[in-house]
Specification:
Blueprint (H helix, E strand, L loop, with lengths): L4 H14 L3 E4 L15 E4 L6 E5 L4 E5 L4 H9 L3 E2 L13 H7 L6 H4 L2 H4 E7 L5 E5 L11 H4 L9 E8 L1 E2 L3 E8 L2 H12 L5 E7 L2 E8 L1 H11 L2 E3 L3 H8 L12 E5 L13 E4 L4 E5 L4 H10 L3 E6 L13 H14 L15
Parallel strand pairs: 1-2
Antiparallel strand pairs: 3-4, 4-8, 5-9, 6-7, 6-8, 10-12, 10-13, 11-12, 14-16, 14-17, 15-16
Length: about 350
């Protein structure tokens, strides 16, 4: 675990001089998901790892971008703390930098916040081989045009993150999972109803005719809520939520394309229930099967959201809807400001970027 900033800077300088595009990789767990295929020379930053500063009393940690989530979670567990956004660990290969670049958050996201919400500051290397610092280690430093949070979902097209500062949460004292047998439309109605009531809800998903609600917090509040909400109380289901988090449930297995729809949480389910998983209290829908992006985008837009081809399918074509003309101009200007030669993850986000 060491600092490889100078080696990364040197690699970017050389790539710029040769006009050789780079694909940034650490754990390699996300190369075939979230974005388009990127045929460029791999810049492996996996050696740039390690926790730089951890202040449990302040609920703040700074770590190098190549640090695995497994290492971070282990350090937090020793202090009875957690990553609020509950990111997928992907068999231990997922890194902090890749998680932020892909903007990935797990089951607790609607209640504890996303990875974007958690970031306090970053250091990054732009396409001109300049080491830049944005934000800080406290919330008061995170204001205005927040470049740190701009990295969330940029898929590495705006820079190579070297350090990331994040805020943390104490581990909940108690957790109970409630299970109900019901249809997808019934589950959406109940998830929205429960989300609007007082109660320490920390997870809500539907799959194969069953709704699962997770409540976490003070033991007395969790027990009171469980008694009030009814349902079957499940024991030893930590693996269930971990498999949902890591997308390792049987639903996610197979070669069929995996689509992600971000919708209004109360939108009625459409399509084959056997090919559907509903998460985030109804706001995130996963679909398996052969669809066209324009078709799903029309469906998503009618429900107040958008669709992306998350995994599988044709990853040489666009995997997310093309933004409007104004948004395209802004994105091109941002790309040029951070990476004027276009050497960092070209085409990973959009074919035209």
């Amino acid at each position: 675990m060491s600092d490889h900033t100078e080696a990364i800077l040197s690699a970017v300088r050389e790539a710029g001089a040769r006009q050789c595009p780079l694909y940034i990789s650490a754990g390699g767990s996300k190369q075939h998901i979230a974005g388009r295929r990127c045929d460029a020379q791999i810049l492996d930053i996996s050696a740039h790892r390690g926790i730089i500063d951890y202040q449990p009393g302040e609920l703040v940690m700074t770590a190098r971008a190549g640090t695995t989530l497994v290492d971070i979670v282990a350090a937090l567990a020793a202090e009875n703390q957690i990553l609020p956004f509950e990111p997928p660990q992907f068999d231990g290969r997922a890194t902090l930098g890749g998680t932020l670049a892909c903007n990935l958050s797990g089951p607790a996201r609607p209640w504890y916040g996303s990875v974007r919400d958690t970031v306090l500051g970053t250091r990054l290397i732009n396409g001109k081989a300049e080491l830049l610092k944005f934000g800080g280690q406290v919330m008061k430093n995170v204001a205005g045009y927040d470049v740190s949070r701009l990295q969330a979902g940029a898929l590495g097209t705006l820079g190579i993150m070297t350090e990331i500062s994040i805020r943390l949460l104490p581990r909940p004292e108690s957790t109970i999972t409630l299970c109900y047998e019901m249809s997808a439309p019934e589950s959406v109605a109940m998830m929205n109803q429960r989300a609007g009531q007082p109660g320490p809800l920390s997870g809500a998903f539907w799959l194969d005719g069953k709704l699962y609600l997770r409540i976490s917090g003070a033991a007395s509040a969790v027990k009171h809520t469980a008694d009030l909400w009814g349902g079957e109380q499940l024991d030893h289901v930590q693996d269930l939520w971990a498999q949902l988090r890591d997308m390792s449930l049987p639903f996610f297995a197979g070669d069929k394309p995996l689509w992600r729809l971000s919708l209004n949480s109360s939108a009625l389910p459409t399509g084959d229930p056997a090919q559907t998983l509903i998460d985030w209290g109804g706001a995130q829908r996963w679909l398996r099967g052969e669809f066209s992006l324009p078709e799903l985008q029309r469906t998503a837009q009618s429900a107040g959201g958008h669709a992306t081809l998350f995994c599988g399918g044709d990853r040489n074509s666009e995997v997310r809807p093309t933004p409007g003309a104004l948004a395209q101009r802004l994105q091109r200007r941002l790309k040029y400001a951070f990476d004027p030669q276009g050497i960092l993850n070209p085409g990973r986000l959009y074919g035209w970027l």
